[in-house]
Each structure stands twice: as C-alpha cells, then as structure tokens.
Write a structure and sequence with these properties.
Blueprint lengths: L1 H20 L11 E6 L8 E2 L5 E2 L1 H13 L2 E6 L5 H6 L5 E2 L7 H4 L3 E2 L4 E9 L17 E4 L3 H10 L6 E4 L2 H9 L5 E5 H9 L7 E3 L6 E4 L2 E2 L4 H16 L2 H10 L2
Parallel strand pairs: 1-4, 1-5, 8-9, 8-10
Antiparallel strand pairs: 2-3, 5-13, 6-13, 7-10, 7-11, 7-12
Helix pairs in contact: 2-8, 2-9
C-alpha cells in the first residue's frame, strides 16, 4: 500500500513539474509594422534634423494617419530615384514623400485620396532676366530634381535632350546650385521652394508662379494588392480632415 501511495505521489509531482515548466501559448499575432519610404531631402515635407530624426509635414501626416488607423509604422530614408522600385520590391510598404498622383504612376501603384495641393514654381537666381515660364526657353541652365514632375514638365518645354536642362539627385543639391548661381533658375514644387526662400530672403531670389503650371496633388502610395491598407489610410485621412487634425498640422508648416 505504501509503495502504491509513493508511486502515486511521484507521478503527481512529475505532472505538476511539467505543468509548471510549460508556458502558455501566445495566441495573439504580432502586429505588422509597415515600413514607410521617405526621401528625407525635401523640406518641409521630409528632412533629417540635427539628431538624425526624420521630420516634416509628410511625417506628421503619415504618423497621424497611422495612429488613427491603428497601424504601426517605421520610417525608411529612401533616395528618390529608387523609391518606386523599392515599393514594388516590397522593401517598403508605403510611400509618403510628396508623391504627385499621375496616371502613369497609377499603373504600378495605388494612391490614397489627395492630401496636399501642389504646383510647380520657378526660383530665379539673382540678376537673371526670367519673368515667366516662356523665358526658360532662353535660359542657359534650368535645374530640376531628376524624376520629378518638374523634370517631366521641363522635358516637354525644353526637349528631353536639351543641354539647358540640368538634373540633380535631390532638392538640396539643386537649391545649392541656385544659391551658387550655377543655374539660371530652378523649377520645383511650391511648398519646398517657398520653404527655401523663407530662409533666404536676403539673397535676392525671385519666385515666379504661373497658371501655365497645372495644379498637382500628393498622395500616399501602396502596392496594387494592398487594397485593405489603402482603405485604412483613406478612412484615417477623412477623419483627420473632419476633426481638424489635418488643419493643425498644415498650419504648423505652411502658416502664412
């Protein structure tokens, strides 16, 4: 009888030990973290501050969208010339980087509802006799950022192989060339060019706006298969507009 009782107690203790060692299974799925591509060389939409953090209007808008949609995001600083292929190759999941919605781009990606209205403007170097888009045809050097709307527009105006059309890898490089007088004028998005002019009022630059440049609209881009993600983004954008959050962010960067 004692032997049977001892055997029973031993088996019971082993069972308790096994139960104590087993950890409860974690059935909750790990939330997906979406990688957001940003060309952080396009202030005030995206740039890198002194601490190395990516900041800007697009950053604040996309973070507000993510918070509203209940998704997690991380930022990936991505060169502009490769940002679309990076999305297609699934190295990033979203692009929020001042991307103009165009019919050509719609063929390879999905866009959110527009979140910013933009327009091309001309930044003229001091002493240059340029007062309208037509005057660019007589300019010696007109700078644009490669692969942007300005590049496309200037190719149509000056010709794809024109020696007068000078392409730069990033907006900061282009604006630096304007500062140095290396180009007669630069063509770029109004928000970014106006931001540069705001901090360089004493350099004698001239800003030209024209009805010949059509309005453009920025959208947040995802891959064609990510329709559910796009629906979340659009729903969040709608809420940000209705509750006033969008206007507060806009006023931070573009207050007159």
């Amino acid at each position: 009888m004692k032997i049977r009782l001892l055997h029973f107690l031993t088996v019971a203790l082993l069972a308790i030990g096994l139960c104590a060692c087993e950890k409860p299974a974690n059935t909750a799925p790990t939330p997906k973290v979406y990688r957001v591509g940003m060309n952080a060389a396009f202030a005030p939409f995206g740039s890198v501050d002194t601490s190395g953090k990516i900041v800007g209007f697009d950053v604040d808008i996309m973070q507000a969208v993510a918070d509203q949609a209940g998704i997690k995001i991380v930022w990936v600083n991505t060169p502009w010339e490769g940002i679309f292929s990076t999305l297609a190759n699934a190295d990033i999941d979203i692009i929020a980087s001042g991307v103009t919605i165009t019919d050509e781009r719609k063929q390879s990606m999905l866009f959110s509802d527009p979140y910013f209205e933009a327009k091309q403007v001309i930044l003229v170097s001091p002493g240059k006799n340029i007062g309208s888009p037509d005057d660019l045809k007589q300019a010696h050097r007109v700078g644009v950022t490669a692969g942007t709307s300005a590049d496309t527009i200037m190719q149509k105006m000056l010709g794809k192989t024109s020696n007068a059309l000078v392409r730069f890898e990033s907006l900061p490089l282009l604006l630096k060339e304007v500062d140095n007088g290396g180009v007669d004028a630069a063509v770029g998005d109004n928000g970014a060019v106006a931001n540069h002019l705001k901090f360089n009022k004493d350099k004698g630059f001239k800003l030209i706006e024209s009805d010949k440049f059509e309005k453009e609209y920025y959208g947040i881009a995802v891959r064609p298969a990510d329709t559910d993600l796009l629906a979340k983004i659009n729903g969040a954008l709608k809420t940000l507009h209705s509750n006033g959050s969008y206007d507060k962010i806009y006023a931070t960067y573009f207050a007159k």
